[in-house]
Amino acid sequence: MDKKNALRAGALAAGTTLMMLLMSSPALALTRDDGDDPGQGLSVIETLGLYVLAPVALFAVITGLVMVLDRSKSEHRVVKPGAKA
Predict the structure, then answer these.
(1) Does the residue 10 lie in any domain?
(2) 64: in domain
(3) Does 77 map to a domain?
(4) pTM above 0.85, yes or no
(5) How many domains are contained in the chain?
């Protein structure tokens, strides 16, 4: 990629980010809509469980399933030279 294209891509990314920031003003969130009734907040433990532990557990389950259900043959796998298969 030459300098002109890189500059163009950077300017486009910066412009897009700036427009998104300008269009999402926090002042719009200060007024409540009719019928808006927020519930009780989450505790620190609940927040960590929901946003940290749950994704890590889901990742571990998917990884485990892929490893257990892997049916590819060992001779088709790419192995570094000198490594034990």
Answers:
(1) no
(2) yes
(3) no
(4) no
(5) 1
